[in-house]
Amino acid sequence: MESITFLVVDDHSLFRRGVVAVLSSQPNMKVVAEAANGQEAVAAVKEFRPDIVLMDLSMPEMGGVEATRLSLKEMPETNILILTISDKDEDLFNAIKAGAKGYLLKDTNPAELVEAVTGVAQGEVIISPLMAPKLLSEIGIAPEPTEKETSLLSVRETEILELITEGLTDREIAERLFISLNTAKTHLKNILAKLHLKSRTQAAVYETKTRTTPGSDLP
């Protein structure tokens, strides 16, 4: 049986080495590379083609969500498992939307980590027990889209809503569209008001439902 290969991405070297030690202790697991930020992660994915990437979220140079998106654009077959301290539902949703196959908190014990990566290698989606209810709650809270509501959005607002669904932050949206950060935030407030939503996470769920609702298209 071939070993499962890993790339471990975290800007805290002590934690990263601990994860490497846990994985390397397993006879069928091999860490082929490490990275300390998102840019290094994307480059390492292309160079080493790991089966699984363990990705932190908050890192210098480039965060984990953007690194996940870019890594999967280059190597769609790569499985990315988020390993983070963040228990924010927005971070969870953005990571999953970016293509991550799982989301674990850093207080996961070694045995649970080994079990999780084994599941991911077998095609499972792994969500921390603490985080799973938050994801289900957000999906349930977002109302069903209606053609009348979505037609209220301007072309720019529709564009921003799609970028929110991709997991981009306000700052990343501003940079992508060459607008100021304040303008991006104002557009978000207008989108939430027009669609009667409370958070950008709900907006992302709403837009996803719009794509999958028969006969419903954003303008």
Query: Topology as H/E string?
Result: EHEHEHEHEHEHHHHHH
Look at the structure and give the mean pLDDT: 85
**What's the CATH first level of the largest domain?**
Alpha Beta
Percent of residues in helices? 40-55%
Question: Total number of β-strand segments?
Answer: 6
Description:
The chain is of the alpha/beta class and 219 residues long. It has 2 domains: 4-131, Rossmann fold (3-Layer(aba) Sandwich), CATH 3.40.50.2300; 142-212, Orthogonal Bundle (Arc Repressor Mutant, subunit A), CATH 1.10.10.10. The chain is built from 11 helices and 6 strands. The protein has helices spanning 13-24, 38-48, 64-74, 89-98, 110-121, 132-141, 147-150, 155-165, 170-177, 181-195, 200-212; strands at 4-9, 29-35, 52-55, 79-84, 102-105, 126-127. The chain has a 6-stranded parallel sheet, sandwiched between helices. Helix 8 (155-165) crosses helix 11 (200-212). The chain is elongated and about 55 Å long. The relative contact order is 0.11. Mean pLDDT is 85; it is low at 213-219.
Layout of helices and strands, plus pairs?
Layout: E1 4-9, H1 13-24, E2 29-35, H2 38-48, E3 52-55, H3 64-74, E4 79-84, H4 89-98, E5 102-105, H5 110-121, E6 126-127, H6 132-141, H7 147-150, H8 155-165, H9 170-177, H10 181-195, H11 200-212
Parallel strand pairs: 1-2, 1-3, 3-4, 4-5, 5-6
Helix pairs in contact: 2-3, 3-4, 8-10, 8-11, 9-10
